[in-house]
Amino acid sequence: MLLYILGMIGIAAFAITGVISSGKRDMDLFSIVLLGMVTSLGGGTIRDTVLGVETVYWVQDTSYLWVAFLSSAFAFFTVRIINDRQRVFHYADAFGLALFTVVATEKVLNLGFSPTIAITMGVTTGVAGGIIRDVLSNRPPMVLGREFYATPAFIGAVLLVLLQKNIPFHEYNSIYAVALIFILRLFAIHKGLYYPSWLLYKKR
């Protein structure tokens, strides 16, 4: 049940980021809501497709689809009254990244795949929605820049795998992993946490 609730919250958070990112692109209501839905549903769709799941999660349970739609529509009408949209964008993105990564990692583990596959698909699911959003709204993808973005997702996914292996029946394993990813992203946002220059590839 906790996994289901976290998934719904993650969809709402990512839908909001999709709406905010499209705000300066002169899109109409339909286009913005569509972008919010694609952003929120895209990562999980890629995960289920790659793993060969018989029915994609939002097709099997249309509640996900409705949450994505209603969250996008709600954000369209309310985001204009928010003064600091960039802060809301970063917070919602960090929250969505954390939730999607953890939910995907746990779901893949529950499907019987190895920890390596679970971590890989967890990170992929977490960052894929943001990549789709940034590309469609003509923004540089955050995951491809210097910003500390994919690494928190990876660390959180590893933590969840370790917790599930050592204390599998503890009910708050998912919460711990979500909190770790979210806190690391907040540090990156507020403290300017970037990768050291010696870890970056520089074109000569």
What does this protein look like?
The chain has 204 residues and is an all-alpha fold. It has eight helices and no strands. The protein has helices at 2-21, 29-51, 57-60, 63-78, 85-110, 115-136, 150-166, 173-191.
Question: Element order, helices and strands?
Answer: HHHHHHHH
On the 0 to 100 scale, the average pLDDT is 86
Q: Report the radius of gyration as a whole number of Å.
A: 17 Å
Main sheet record: none
Distance between the termini: 52 Å
Q: What proportion strand?
A: under 5%
Q: What class do helices, strands and sheet pairing give?
A: mainly alpha
Shape: globular
Q: Outline the low-pLDDT stretches.
A: none
Task: Output the keywords.
204 residues, mainly alpha
